[in-house]
Amino acid sequence: MSTFGELAKLGHEQVVYCRDDSVGLRAIIAIHSTALGPALGGTRLYNYASEADALHDVLRLSRGMTYKAAVAGLDLGGGKAVIWGDPNTIKSEALFRSYGRFVDSLGGRYITAEDMNTTVEDMNFINRETKWVTGHSTYSGGSGDPSPVTAWGVYHGIRACLEVVYGGPDVQGRTIAIQGVGSVGYHLARFLHESGAKLLFNDISDRRLACVLEEFGGTVLGDDDYWSAECDVLAPCAIGGVVNARTIPLIRAPIVAGSANNQLANEVEDGEALERAGITYAPDYVINAGGLINVDSELQHTPREKSMQDAANIFTTLKAIINKAKSGGITTTQAGNRLAEERIEAVAHLRRFHLNR
Ligand code: NAD
Prior knowledge:
By secondary structure, this protein is of the alpha/beta class. Strand 11 (about 255), helix 9 (about 265-275) and strand 12 form a beta-alpha-beta unit. It is globular. The chain has helices spanning about 5-10, 50-70, 95-105, 120-125, 145-165, 185-195, 205-215, 225, 265-275, 285, 290-300, 305-310, 315-330, 330-350, and strands spanning about 15-20, 25-35, 40, 45, 75-85, 110, 175-180, 200, 220, 235, 255, 280. It folds into two domains: about 5-135, Leucine Dehydrogenase, chain A, domain 1 (Rossmann fold, 3-Layer(aba) Sandwich); about 145-335, Rossmann fold (3-Layer(aba) Sandwich), CATH 3.40.50.720. Strands 1, 2, 3, 4, 5 and 6 form a six-stranded mixed β-sheet that branches. A six-stranded parallel β-sheet has the order 9-8-7-10-11-12, with helices on both faces. Nicotinamide-adenine-dinucleotide binds near residues 180, 183, 237, 240 and 288. Nicotinamide-adenine-dinucleotide (NAD) binds near residues 203 and 259.
């Protein structure tokens, strides 16, 4: 398929190729939609097998950001960027500053942030060349670690699922199994523990497991025991692709609701398999939007309390999505996508009326 054909397929507005051989920079910035606002999304640094793979990834990820921002009710569009190279060897001040100049040339249509293999320090270099960057240090006006806000949103998303499935949102006395007790999983465990939930944990890091066991108590599960655990909620907060044709038949919990990105190995087939099994799935991009809400607060210069309140509203959004899925006979991911598309359509429509601000 031609590049224009691929852009048309997913509905992208603009794709920018950036090259600076003097610093080894090869980057692609994809702007999927600016219908709701500037396209925001992180910069991923990855050693793709081919240019086609890099393009495919940035197109897919940028489209996902449009839906995430739309469902979260933010005035942001969707974008993403990839830098093609080996994260162990390619990084330098000059590379990120050169890249920052390309970001700047888009005049705010695209705003970047951290993603896989890029750090606060890298954002600080980009920030030397452009103001269109978030996620830089708190001392230079950044919003700091987003994990507590993400976890707070996941906590309220879990409450929404409990309400739909059990008729009440209380986590007191419920058993919740968290996979991955890193930045988000740790804070989620804290919120759940404080609310009286019983906790089960799975992680590949013994150090992290020891830390949560000491603080919150609970039980450790091996990998397959995790998926077949007798519990009320499975909360995958580690890696993507874990909900798949192998694990779905093992699941006995009525709810899957966690922070991990791209939890479903196959969005359509695995979403439908969960639906058929009577398992309520919280679409990852809806329940983990707290990170994006946190970044938005950096742009709006609003305090963390406002982000926490907005993240708590994931309760209402997620409940509406699950009910929409039930009444429409569709998966929760499809219901979330429709909600996003309806909001984009309705709000973009407002722009027909020019206001001379
Ligand atoms: P993290 O790296 O701090 O923690 C991940 C944890 O998962 C670690 O404790 C790690 O040991 C564990 N882990 C890794 N592979 C595992 C496996 N195969 N089985 C069990 N445990 C495993 O990451 P994080 O920032 O907490 O993010 C967790 C997930 O949530 C990721 O998918 C991330 O993309 C997503 N997410 C995070 C944020 C945020 O604010 N940090 C926002 C949105 C989405």
